[in-house]
Amino acid sequence: MTIGPIEAVGAGSPIGGLAPIGGLEATESTTSTNGADFAAMLAGGLQKVEAAQDRADNLAVQAATGQLADVHEYMIAANEAQLTTQLTAAVRNKAIEAFNEIMRLQA
């Protein structure tokens, strides 16, 4: 397994120098207000989280049965699944906080 170089997301990126995670690419036009695009992006992200968890589960079974030659593959997959789950939970929590704040403003 090789690790490629880190590439910048974009010239105006607030995290310049870091590559997008999980295949999510930055787009030039961020003015789109189409809810279907957001829903598709959200569904795709959740599918990637589930795929990472499934991969870690499969490698855990292979490691337990002795079919996995390199145990470090399982450790990497397990950490990736854990981090993606933690990130998903953090984003969910921030979305709930934002929704609650908007509801308080309207009252």
Account of the 3D structure:
By secondary structure, the chain is mainly alpha-helical. It has a domain at 35-106. It contains two helices and no strands. It is elongated and about 60 Å long.
Distance between the termini: 54 Å
- Supply the helix-strand structural class: mainly alpha
Query: Major sheet: size, sense and barrel closure?
Result: none
Q: What's the average pLDDT? A: 80
Number of strands: 0
The whole-angstrom Rg is 18 Å
Helical residue percent band: 55-70%
How much β-strand is present in the residues? under 5%
Q: Which H/E pattern describes the elements? A: HH
Count of alpha and pi helical runs = 2
Unreliable sequence segments: 13-19
What would the principal axes of the Cα set say about the shape? elongated
Give a quick rundown of the structure.
By secondary structure, the chain is mainly alpha-helical. The protein has helices spanning 35-65, 71-106. It has a domain at 35-106.
List its salient traits.
107 residues
What is the strand and helix layout of this fold?
Elements lengths: L34 H31 L5 H36 L1
